[in-house]
Fold Transporter.
Amino acid sequence: MFYRLGKFATRHRWLIVGLWVLAAVIALPFAPRANQVLQSGGFESPDSESQKAIDTLVQKLHVNETIVQVIFTSNRYTVADPQFTQQSEQALARIRSWSDVAQVTSYLENPRQVSQDGHAAYVNIQMKTDANVAAKQLPELEQRLQKVPDLQTKIGGGPVFYEDIQRVSENDLRRAELLAFPFAIIALLLVFRSVIAAILPALVGGFAVVVALALIFGLGHITPLSIFVLNITTLFGLGLGVDYSLFMVSRFREELLHGRNIEEAVAITVATAGRAVTFSGLTVSIGLFGLTFFHINMLHSVGLGGILVVLLAVVAAITLLPAMLAILGLKVNALPVRVPRFGRRSVAVNTELDPHHGYWYRLSQFVMRYPLRVFFPVLLLLLGFGAPFLGVRFSAPDASILPSYVPSRAAYDLLVQRFNQRETTPILMAVQTKGNALTPDNIKNLYYYVKRIEADPRVERVDSIVSADPRFTLSQYQLLYTHPDLIADPYLGAFLKSSVSGNTLLVQVVSKYGMVDPNSQTLVQTIRNTNPGNGISVLVDGGTAGNIDYVHSLYTDFPIAILIISITTYIVLLLLFRSLLLPLKAIIMNTLSILASYGALVLIFQDGFLHQILGFTPLGFVEASSPILLFCSLFGLSMDYEVFLLSRIQEAFWQTGIIAVRWHWVYSVVAALLPARQ
């Protein structure tokens, strides 16, 4: 089939190139606009308890989790000074009158929003829109926030965090492209020693990326896609496009050197390297397909985008590239590049004609001569690199993952340094009762339930309608809420209005420990596992609960993804190599290399090894989706090279049988793994 495809590409070369050029021309107006339809965030699991809790609070209490924080600081004044309040209110005047703002909660209404030294305070601006829309409204918010002479302002919160993630991702992507593309061209020039041959892989990768981005622009109008799709599309499109083309062009030049005519050289190239490229693309797609099993939109989106660009890279490599090779013919070697030769001149022979020379040949001979001496040290090395993964600590991403110069990170650092961080990340409880929450029986049940929570040594404070004033007794609360409209205390009246609606109320628990502290996590689990009784149901949300649910959702689905990826990859490699053991060997070897990558991930980014040299601040944890992204991408990519290597070994063995002659018992094992050609 692949041989006939090569013949077809040769005969219809101009048509194929024309169709690809037409596709690129159509795609060009849409490809740069792909980011317009992509969404920030996407780290929530729609089926998690924390998401159900916030959905309940939004539906019943109209709580909007889209909050922008404006932090005011002053070296001259404290919050107690009238000038601080006057200038902060002046700065917020146009925001308070903005129709897209649902509510502004000032430090005047909640004294806990004042810093410990009194020289800073923050204001919560609750937007009417969701986080993605609010992120696009930030320029107007910044414009409405008036500058005042004696206060400095910083803006943070969820929408700012998501906007910064998008901006940093796009900037990093552009920087990576600017750095990677020249290096890729230089590497291709060194490999091919011809400008024309070096340009071809870059063209194939470019075509694949442009068309993929245009398709993503269309797909983004149909289904929600994460901003991280851009990164995976460019990375895999250019990387695999260059990768596949390198093997195809190398094989084509080799066939020309063996005296084939152009048509035959193209056909054999597609039949051999093209076949390997196709199966390689399938293995990479299988790995990325595993990401679509996750309920986290970020991973699901990356999987869809990755599969799309990989398939396009494969199609371009086995159609567009053969057509261009057929057009160029011997001109593929045009514009030669002189590369300095090092070492003895007698060794510098053309390895495409005589592969029995050079470093790689000597290395392969050493490995085949001393297999066990190589196998066990390498195995121990991989296991040693993977060992740090045993101490991994997972967490959801927050502003600490961003560079220190972006607004959300600066605001986050300020909150951590000058405020009680526990106050900014309470445990949120969506509590529902049988019937109206303010009936005497329900108030009694809620009162004793809250008392049980307050008795936990990990709890700093509980904010609820039955703990609003510690001086009140149960009877006083029951009497107070018999006629809620007659409550004279404006603070308590406002608190009741914002916390209760029908049978639903909001309870906030402030932990004595930080959001990601194990004590706070066990506190959330304790609250969830405690049965309130008396017809009360509880759903728990908040930063700690969301973190727990995020990690749980990921690693509940991960084993299923691993199983499906492994089984599907085994079947594909079984069809390719017609061997029962080779696919198993490939899966085990790739798993070992991925485990080594996991260990490096923990050692460097969690524990901070070499962080001063590499120029980053260690997080103290591993972002929970990173191992999953690494597995699903590295499994396919490393299998990619496995396919190329074993395909060529198998082809050489079928043609010559040299391996069995040169290599005693090990070659007999290989011969058993590679059944005779049918």
